[in-house]
Design a protein that fits this description.
599 residues; Glycosyltransferase; Beta-galactosidase, Chain A, domain 5; 24 strands; 33% helix
Length: 599
Amino acid sequence: MKKTERYIHDRLPADFYSRIEKGIFNRNFYPGYSNRKAWKKCLDNPLVGKIISGADLIPENQVPQLLYSNYRQFNINGNRTEYEALYFRRRMNLAYLAAALCLTGDKEKYLARVLDYTVAILEEGTWCVPAHASWEKDSIDRWRFCDLFAAETGAIMALLSSILGEELEKEIPGIMKTIAEKTLSRTVYAVFDKELSHWWDKHEKPANWTPWCSGNCLVTALLMEQNPKKRLAQVKHFLANVSRFISHYSDDGYCPEGPSYYMKANLMVFQTLLILEKAIPGSMNNLFSDPKLKAMMEFLPNVRIGGNNLVTFGDAQPGLRSNPAFILPAGKYFNSEPLLEIACLKEFNIGISGDYLASFLAHLFDRPADLPDNMTAGTSQSVFKNRLAVFRSEKFSVSLKSGNNSEPHNHNDQGHFELFSGDVPVILDAGTGFYAKINFSEQRYTLWNTRGNGHNAPVFGKYEQVYGKDYVSTFTVHNQTLCCDLSKAYPAEAGVKTAERKIEFSDSKVTVEDSFSLKKKLPAVITLLTVCKPVVRDSHTILLGNVTLSLENIEFSEMEIMPELVHDRNGKKKNIWDSTITAIRLKSGKNCYKMVFSR
């Protein structure tokens, strides 16, 4: 076992693997249907009404139909939403119906419908979504590839079998064997099949795919694998994968994929640990007291900005609408008040993609009893060395992005700053909307929101920041001042000799100063994105809500309404910012200028 694969292994009790092999562990991660007392205890949970009403809104006598003609759209025109929306709807509906059945005990109303969805999912030709399949010309290959959502579906089926297996078997004798065989074949066994190549299972420096897939496959292995030696090998293998993910993370917990991937990257590590803690209580004590893992869990509250908003670098969406199902128990086990404060959110997601069943069960059974009544403003500063900094005060919050232009889910955004006045995004990072084929193609940086001129670092003449690991920046922090070195963030053609962005922060004023030297004289253009309605008083003064932007050695050039970025929230296509994004372009012929934001 490589050193990077030992992170979890080295912190386990001596008898851990022996108990896994011998089957001396708890498989009842959550109460089964027959434990009516446990389910009745949940009825006071505020989510119960939403679950039951959600189940009752699902149309009867129909299951969303998955067609190959929709599946192949991704290969033809890059559209992945037509198929995925129905694919995820099936899994979401199954979760609502299964949870409603357990909560109400009404088998007459819900059991047959649960089986409608269970059988339909078992009958699917593949659990791998089209965007993750390998396509050769006009035909599909590798139907058995275990992608993010195949692994997730496996865990859904494993948890469903755990809580409702006896009832399903009474209705359709033999179905439990069918569920187990098909689930293991499409997930755990597929990963171990040498004829199939699972890149996420092999990368030395993995991204979210590795904990996302490995954590879900671990649930399936623990609940469904009956062969002791196979089960032991599977658990060791998937824990080695998750360990590699942890080992290559920085000690400060920084998630390079951005806040929106925290749920399936950093937090997926916790979900894995939580399942193991349920299997063998007390076995995760050393991991729950690990400082690095705690920092990974606290990444989300550390990137809060402007109240209940998040910094939106990379492929992120705005707002702190995270699913607290696993955040709150993480707060309990890691003794983290910032994580527990997420309970104070009035708006939150209750599931992600199709993974609603695990979320419902965590909401109902893992929610800590004692939770804070109020959410604090957070610390005055959060600093991830040479990656990201966030400064906060009562009136203003500001962030600065650094690092490199080759991060997972990268945008060319070195030196980009976001500014909030109270909880209002005055200067923003657009983030991303629906994924299509183009998002992960050679044309990715033709999208306005991913490229350099879609962010607010200077563009010199026609030269903007470009993609690549060699395009880097660093920053220093001194009290309330950030200094970011951008001299290596541009292509050689830009002729940048030196470039620095300095941000001076106070409660009532934020000053952004750019200074640079070039091999040849070029104008600098800054693009500021805002959802405020700009009022241009003159070429050096712009009003943005209750903030005044004063310009020195740089002046207003033009404005442009940017295309909407649309995402799917609760099954509805919606502009992720809820407002129009306006691009304000500023232009300067000087090699030093200032943008001063004041209230």
